[in-house]
Design brief:
Layout (H helix, E strand, L loop, with lengths): L1 E5 L2 E3 L5 E8 L8 E6 L5 E7 L6 E3 L7 E6 L4 E6 L8 E9 L1 E4 L3 E5 L2
Length: 114
């Protein structure tokens, strides 16, 4: 199982970024995918969820209305569109799949700063 995140970077407050998670090594469409984030000095925080077929999504309260999770099972990818970014969104963002064990990518850094 391999998960590779990309798309992070530096963005000004109010800006947007689109993160991607490329998955391999398992039957992608059978599994839900989650995004988490970890800010400096804080624990890992759940961000968003998408079901295996993409027909169900959920978000942490502070992300609702700003973030959108989606997936393309033909390409084995999950995306996280982040709009109206705030400095408190600064964190390393990780995608996660549970296949018996927890699998994580290496993370992608998002920095929201003017």
């Amino acid at each position: 199982v391999q998960l590779v995140e990309s798309g992070g970077g530096l963005v000004q407050p109010g800006g947007s970024l689109r993160l991607s998670c490329a998955a391999s090594g398992f039957i992608f469409s059978r599994y839900a995918v989650r995004w988490y984030r970890q800010a400096p000095g804080k624990g890992r925080e759940w961000v968003a969820y998408v079901s295996g077929f993409g027909d169900s999504t959920d978000y942490a309260d502070s992300m609702k209305g700003r973030f959108t999770i989606s997936r393309d099972n033909a390409k084995n990818t999950v995306s996280l569109q982040m709009n109206s970014l705030k400095p408190e969104d600064t964190a390393v963002y990780y995608c996660n799949v549970v296949l018996g064990a927890n699998y994580w990518g290496q993370g992608t850094q998002v920095t929201v700063s003017s």
